[in-house]
Specification:
Layout (H helix, E strand, L loop, with lengths): L30 H7 L8 E3 L8 E3 L8 E3 L2 E14 L14 E3 L4 E4 L3 E2 L20 E9 L7 E5 L4 H13 L8 E12 L2 E13 L2 H32 L19 E3 L2 E3 L9
Parallel strand pairs: 1-9
Antiparallel strand pairs: 2-3, 4-5, 4-8, 4-10, 5-6, 6-7, 8-9, 10-11, 12-13
C-alpha cells in the first residue's frame, strides 16, 4: 500500500490481538508465530520527540544497545488521545523518574495531587515556576501503523508539538470531515530555539488519502484497535486508582453472619433459600 525504508522488527501489543486487513499488505500471524507469542506480554514500540534540536527519531531495534535512527515516520494514524503528567520542577527530563501525578486519558489524574485534570491548579497557565506555562505537562499519544508492520508504534507528543499537531489535524481531517485513519501521513522534525536552548518539534503532512476497499479495510482495523485501546486505558486508570489508594483492596476481614449460613455481601444478606430464581 505504501513504502517505508526503515522498518522496525515486528513487536506485538499489550491489548488483545486483532486481525490486520489484507488490503494493507500485512498478513495475520502464522500458526508458528502465534505459538511463539503464547504467554508473552505484548508491547508497543515507543517513540519520543527528541530533545536538543535533534532531527532524527530513535527507534527500537533487535539490539537494545544499538537503536535505529530515522528522519521521518510514515503511516496511518489509527487513534490518538490526550495524556497528562506532573513532575517536580526539573525532574521531567529524567527518564527514570516517574511522575508524581499521571493521567492516561487527560481527564483524571492519579497520584499527587490527583483528581480532575480540568480543575487542577497545576493544569492552568501560569502554574509553572517561570510563570508562563503549566506545571503539568499536557501531552498527546499517537498510534501510527507503518507499512509491513504488525502493530503500530506509540508516539508521545510533548507540549511543544501539540500546536502543530492541532493545526494539521484541523486542516487535513476535521475541516474535510474525514476520520484520522483515512490518510497516510508523514511525521518529521524541526529544530526550534527559545532562550538560547534548542529543542525539536514534530511536523506533520498528508501523503495521500485512502479510498474504496483500501479505506474500508483500514476502517475495520482501526475500529477494532480503537475499542481495544479505550478498554486498555480504562484498565490502566483503574490500576493507577488502586496504586494511589483511591480504592482499598483487601481492607478488613469478612465475617460470616449469624443468619443460618446465608451469604453476606457487605452489610447485606443474599437469601437464596426464600426467593426462587427466574426461569
Amino acid at each position: 500500500m505504501y513504502s517505508q525504508n526503515n522498518q522496525n522488527n515486528t513487536t506485538v501489543m499489550e491489548c488483545a490481538q486483532f486481525i490486520l486487513p489484507t488490503a494493507m499488505g500485512i498478513n495475520a500471524p502464522s500458526d508458528d508465530l502465534s505459538e511463539d507469542m503464547e504467554g508473552l506480554r505484548l508491547t508497543f514500540p515507543k517513540v519520543k520527540i527528541p530533545g536538543g534540536g535533534v532531527l532524527q527519531f530513535e527507534m527500537e531495534s533487535d539490539n537494545p544497545e544499538r537503536p535505529d535512527y530515522v528522519p521521518e515516520l510514515e503511516g496511518i494514524l489509527l487513534f490518538n488521545h490526550p495524556a497528562n503528567s506532573y513532575w517536580p520542577e526539573g525532574e521531567e527530563y529524567e527518564d527514570n523518574t516517574p511522575p508524581l501525578c499521571q493521567s492516561v486519558d487527560g481527564k483524571i489524574g492519579y497520584g499527587n495531587p490527583g483528581g480532575l485534570c480540568a480543575s487542577c491548579g497545576f493544569n492552568t497557565f501560569g502554574s509553572a515556576s517561570n510563570g508562563r506555562g503549566k506545571a503539568c505537562k499536557n501531552q498527546r499519544t499517537l498510534y501510527l501503523l507503518r507499512s509491513g508492520e504488525f502493530v503500530p508504534i506509540q508516539i508521545s507528543l510533548p507540549p511543544t508539538s501539540l500546536t502543530p499537531y492541532n493545526a494539521f489535524y484541523n486542516a487535513a481531517f476535521a475541516r474535510r470531515q474525514r476520520p484520522l485513519y483515512s490518510s497516510i501521513v508523514r511525521i518529521g522534525l524541526k529544530r526550534m530555539s527559545s532562550n538560547g536552548y534548542d529543542y525539536s518539534v514534530a511536523t506533520f503532512c498528508k501523503v495521500r488519502d485512502l479510498s474504496g476497499e483500501e479505506l474500508a479495510a483500514v476502517k475495520a482495523y482501526a475500529d477494532t484497535f480503537r475499542l481495544q485501546i479505550k478498554n486498555t486505558l480504562t484498565e490502566q486508570a483503574a490500576s493507577k486508582e488502586m496504586e494511589s489508594g483511591a480504592i482499598e483492596v483487601g481492607s478488613g476481614s469478612m465475617d460470616l453472619p449469624d443468619n443460618e449460613a446465608h451469604f453476606s455481601v457487605g452489610m447485606g444478606v443474599v437469601d437464596g433459600e426464600r426467593e426462587q430464581l427466574p426461569a
